[in-house]
Design a protein that fits this description.
Layout lengths: L3 H11 L9 E6 L7 H14 L4 E6 L6 H4 L8 H5 L5 H4 E3 L5 E3 L4 H5 L4 H12 L7 E6 L5 H9 L2 E6 L3 H16 L6 E8 L2 H19 L5 E6 L2 H9 L3 H4 L4 H15 L10 H11 L3
Parallel strand pairs: 1-5, 1-6, 2-4, 2-5, 6-7, 7-8
Antiparallel strand pairs: 3-4
Helix pairs in contact: 1-7, 1-14, 2-13, 8-14, 9-10
The chain binds adenosine-5'-diphosphate and magnesium ion.
GO cellular component, one term: cytoplasmic side of plasma membrane
Protein name: MinD/ParA family protein
InterPro entries: FlhG, MinD_FleN, P-loop_NTPase, ParA/MinD_ATPase, YlxH/NBP35
Length: about 290
């Protein structure tokens, strides 16, 4: 029997890349919920956009999807409508704060595992069209390691693990890294320490994880940066305006801007065989076999 992913692989091979730029995929994840993953994803995306990059935020948090709520935008369509073939990818991309483009989540990713060949080809054909359309697609995934989240982690070029300095958050972040590594996958993890009192606390937290990862998994886990613990984040959530927009001079905003600058310093616009939407879909669909 032809495997379900074969049609997709053929499609991936025959599609020519329409865009001139390469699209980089970033997955944001965490061990524990409530560590600030969605706020980080959205405000990091807005910071990259402010630097002149085109960014699409893809809400892939099953059940707890809320990127739209953080922007006070009600989403008419979500990924669910794409998977049901009711809508095209262009129909479900919506504009939020500062005109940032996003795809709302929902229950869509549960369905991804049960797609027919026909639906899978439609999904791939639609997502493929994003290649070259934006510089970055950032997936906000659910906390913990579900099967769906694992696919996004494995297929992305960068996987950002968000943790706070709290011991429970640290151990859960390490657990995710360890699980993925134990499964034999080679993933480029990067740490973000959210809600730090100062950079000393950020560094101590990052060191705890990276030292253990080095010692027990022989993995180097670089740190992308720290985001200050700042009451404006909660205020911004209540106002449904991303904190980098509502409080542009706050310490949370400054720290996330520095972090985005650090990320961009390590980012090179080079088309490699392992980059872009095409490679992402290839990897993801190989995992569906
Ligand atoms: N840097 C921060 N400083 C202060 N509070 C924060 C910060 N980041 C997140 N929070 C708080 O944590 C809550 C949960 O954040 P959220 O992004 O929804 O987490 P997750 O997506 O990981 O579940 C926010 O509503 C806010 O009150
Ligand atoms: Mg969230």
């Amino acid at each position: 029997m032809k495997d379900q992913a074969e049609g997709l692989r053929n499609l991936v091979q025959t599609q020519t890349e329409k865009g001139t730029r390469s699209t980089r995929i970033i997955t944001v994840t965490s061990g524990k919920g409530g560590v600030g993953k969605s706020n980080f994803t959205l405000n990091f995306a807005l910071s990259l956009q402010a630097q002149g990059y085109k960014v699409l935020v893809f809400d892939a948090d099953i059940g707890l999807a809320n990127i739209d709520v953080l922007m006070g935008v009600s989403s008419k369509f979500s990924l669910y409508h794409l998977l049901k073939k009711d809508k095209t990818i262009w129909d479900i991309i919506q504009k939020g704060s500062n005109d940032i483009e996003f795809i709302a989540g929902g229950s869509g990713f549960n369905d991804l595992l049960r797609l027919t060949d026909d639906e899978l080809n439609y999904f791939a054909d639609q997502v493929m069209q994003l290649n070259g359309y934006v510089d970055f697609i950032i997936f906000d995934t659910g906390a913990g390691l579900s099967k769906e989240t694992l696919k996004f982690i494995l297929a992305a070029e960068d996987t950002i693990v968000v943790t706070t300095p709290e011991p429970t958050s640290i151990t859960d972040a390490y657990a995710i890294i360890k699980m993925v590594n134990t499964m034999g996958h080679d993933v480029s993890f990067k740490l973000v320490i959210n809600r730090v009192t100062d950079s000393k606390e950020g560094k101590q937290t990052a060191d705890k994880i990276s030292l253990v990862a080095k010692q027990f998994l022989n993995l180097q886990i670089p740190t992308l940066g720290f985001v200050d613990d700042d009451p404006v984040v909660s205020k911004a959530v209540k106002r449904q305006i991303p904190f980098t927009i509502a409080y542009p001079y706050s310490s949370a905003t400054k720290s996330i801007q520095t972090l985005a600058d650090n990320y961009l310093k390590g980012y090179r616009v080079i088309e490699t065989p392992s980059s872009g939407v095409k490679s992402f879909l290839n990897k993801m669909m190989n995992l569906l076999k």
